Amino acid sequence: MAKKQFxxxxxxxxxxxxxxxxxxxxxxxxxxxxNASDAIDKLYFRSLTDDxxxxxxxxxxxxxxxDKDARTLTVSDNxxxxxxxxxxxxxxxxxxxxxxDFKKGDENQAEEIDIIGQFGVGFYSAFxxxxxIKVMSRAYGADEAFVWESSGADGYxxxxxxxxxxxxxxxxxxxxxxDDEKYAAYLETYRIRELIKKYSDYIRYPIRMxxxxxxxxxxxxxxxxxxxxxxxxxxxxxxxKSPSEVSDEDYNNYYKDKFGDYEAPxxxxxQKTEGSADYTALLFxxxxxxxxxxxxxxxxxLQLYSSGVMIMEKCKELIPDxxxxxxxxxxxxxxxxxxxxxxxxxxxxxxxxxKALEKKITSELSKMLKTDREKYETxxxxxxxxxxxxxxxSFGANKDTLQDLIMFTSSNDKKLxxxxxxxxxxxxxxxxxxxxxxxxxxxxxxxxxxxxxxxHNYEVLYLTEDIDEFALQILREYDGKEFLNVCTENxxxxxDADKEKLKEANEGAKDVFEFIRDSLSGAxxxxxxxxxxxxxxxxxxSEGALSVGMEQILNKMPGAEDQHIKAETVxxxxxxxxxxxxxxxxxxxxxxxxxxxxxxxxAQARLVNGLSIDNPAEIADLVCSLML
Length: 628
Ligand code: ADP
Hints:
Number of strands: 22
Largest sheet: 8 strands, mixed
Distance between the termini: 81 Å
Number of helices: 20
Radius of gyration: 33 Å
Bound molecules: adenosine-5'-diphosphate
Strand content: 15-25%
CATH topology of the largest domain: Heat Shock Protein 90
CATH architecture of the largest domain: 2-Layer Sandwich
CATH class of the largest domain: Alpha Beta
Structural class: alpha+beta
Number of domains: 4
Oligomer: single chain
């Protein structure tokens, strides 16, 4: 029979697995057991609603067998099994995860670990220790069974086979030992026992194996070998063990296995309460942003258990949107086993638990911020935008929870700062919290208004994320100090005498400004002098609630094409700059030239503010004609 080929990505992955230098080859057993447990879960879930599935919880098991002579290690389960199609689709390709993106070039070890951990390549990891794999499987309720077989990247076959019961049997032919690697150890009972204790102890179904024990015969000095069916895992879920029994590594391994992450979490939160809500929670904050986190595909939610039995994989009612990055589970004896989604939404108990979890997460994050700044900043870089989004999308309802957890880059040291820290550094008389918006810290620090505010020794928050300004606008103030975008015409740094002078200058130039504004055919709402530009000639600001930065972001959003969102833009001219006299002079003597100058100045102002211009060729020609 002709061999079928693996899909391209799978083939590359297989090559890598077969020739793996990955140091933790032992994880293959965890992966196979975890698949077996998932397969049993599936059938068990079905039995809750489908009377034709007659198995009881106690009927399920995972079985391990090692045969040193045949050099095989077998992992079996009596779970849901696979049909012929499922065998082909599930084991013939790993592209399911969609985002499997092989980087070209050196496949070094670090990269390997990344790939092995990141994308449920579980089953394939068996090729790190086996040179041939057979998967015999019979789907529950089906009357035929099939065997999938492969020796690696050259392809696989699927044939009919005999298998009396439903479930899956995976037979690994273990590789020959090499100088560096003693694969035969995976056939030793002690090693298997050790691996199961280390990685799979909490699996909720028994992992059994026939093991041999030597006993002294009664009343004699002779020994006999007795075979015994041994259960290798304690089946106690990790969150039910006493905290002193569980090491950080245990939690990390559990998290990686159950939540498919390749890095340990940055924070593990364990909570056990009794009282108005009786529950145990085990929560994890990932140490990096999941690749699909800021996409529609990402679903928040915690696993929900009722007395150790999982009743829901992703209960979104348990976690608020602003903490959607938190993974983990809640186990409560108060919840009924057959609870439906609709019932959950109204469940009082669940609401109480959700509130308590939110409080706990908030307090843990605050604690991290106070006691481990570096860790908190790592967390914040991964998920800070979500906290800010939480402030914005709730119209401030979550303000008290979140405002002390958010951070921005400070002009002081270009490091992250909290609002509290900003205010603590600020003199009583300073009534505003200044901020500026731009693509990057470098670009923001070049804004004329920023230079001006800094020259007055005020600190400026540098906002580089799309959500930043929207969040601050919802907050409006912190500790009695209002937020102010330095690129608005309200930026008011001058003393009274200067203000008076500016007012007079503005009034005297009304006609010039009107002419300039008209030359720009509607691009700006207003033209005015300012004393906020330090040494620079021109800049843009905005009046009203919508800043130029927000205009940009809103127009980038899907569906914004025909909305024409527009900030009220103000062209600001430095009252102390010689360009002022030049413009007045042209207004008297050469209006055509003033029209061209207006266009150039406006284009310059846009560029200075990090914006693009609509008519680059026209501006280039105008500037060139000035050079001639
Ligand atoms: P993952 O477990 O991350 O989905 P795997 O490569 O380990 O990736 O497995 C691929 C798929 O094969 C699983 O999603 C499951 O549908 C199926 N599968 C693997 N092992 C078993 C098993 N023992 N019983 C039933 N289905 C299985």
